[in-house]
Write a structure and sequence with these properties.
With 326 residues, the protein is of the alpha+beta class. The chain has nine helices and 16 strands. Helices cover 35% and strands 25% of the residues. The two termini are 37 Å apart.
Amino acid sequence: MGYVSNSNEQRSGSGPSFAVSSSRSEGEAHSLGSARVVGFHQTVRIMPSEPVKRLGTGWHWWFSENIHVPVSKRIEFHFQGARHLLALYNEGARKDGETSIDGVYASKLRGFEHRLTFVPAGHAFREWHETVSSTRVTFLYVDPAAFQRPDDAEVSFLPRVYFEDSLVWETASKLKNAIEGGETNRVPYLEALSSVLAHELSQRNQDLFRESAPINRGGLASWQRRIVIEYIEEHLGEQVCLLKLAELARLSLHHFCRAFKQSFGVPAYQYQVQRRMELAKLLLADHAISITDIALSLGYAQTSSFSSAFRKTTGWTPTTFRREFK
């Protein structure tokens, strides 16, 4: 029911396997070694495949893959298929990269731990990373039939890139564990989880149409938080202008500053410094990058300025942190 591979070629075990073949249509049975493949799922194409470890297993409408990418690698993910794809980013960060769906829904967010990306069936997904830490991603593939409503009502799903939703994450994690569990009587449970997941993903569609509210209990609305944070993450190496952030949030400067602090507990400038220092920790873990280069990449003209900011935020000098890092 699964495979283990460090490349895009999937190797079967002793039981039925789900495999990828660009020359076959879905549902076609074919032989792979001595095993009989009863069906296959189109999965994410990974390039280059050599440094990547991938472990996959599936059943009927569902397939789960666990992907591990080592530190300091440039990697690309591509997918477009007849199944929905939900990516769970368990850990990882990138020095550079971009994630997009249909070339429109895009993000250059560098820290993506505990984020999700949803690619509805038929949409084109592309992602590339220059990793600065070990990256683990779970890909869940779900046949659209598993998302059908009991009342046969059609539900459309919108693409989402790097969103946060604790309910979706929890349900998707349960679905992953159920797929990988191996119980023969699990199909009713998988169907129930899929129904819940479909409902939660469709609820996110409704959120998009409620984004006109400029303020939420004195803080930023969800769409404002998302667009502002993505902008900050994409410009950690620059001095972000508060006027630009206020413009993105469609608020006056005074209103934005007050709402940002209400939402995040710190002023926008301090938040950016904190995020710079979190990225600095990841970069310092790579001993091949000099502290001077790290300082420059984060927008500091002098190493001493970076060292001062890092020590003020973390209590460590960059040199000491690198020496103690394990």
